[in-house]
Write the structure tokens for this entry.
Amino acid sequence: MDLFGLSFEKLLIIGVIAVFLLGPDKLPGYAAKLGQFVRTLRGMADTAKARMRDEMGPEFDEVEWQKLDPRQYDPRRIIRDALVDVPESQRRPAPSAAVAGAGLVGATAPARREVVPLAAGEVAPYDSEAT
């Protein structure tokens, strides 16, 4: 069982350290506060979920939430797709982690323009819409 990436042994060690730091007389009070905090968080999450259902209507249950999980995206593939203008039908799947060290597969760096220094008294270009 992993809770927030912590194994049972790590949670046990944290508990023992908490007993020593807080002392046996204060520990039940802090445990009760932690339980109340977790219940409050759970209630907030349930309220948010209910509000989403109310605002989105019946489409809320039809959304495939797994597709929106940011952990499934491969940054290498996203960057490669942004740099290489290849039609969707010709794109290959993202390379495996073993090939990832080789850099972007099939991508070429865009041509760099020559940097020309400004003449004396010349004002640098400024884009008013970019700020």
Notes: Residues 97-102 have pLDDT under 50 and may be disordered.
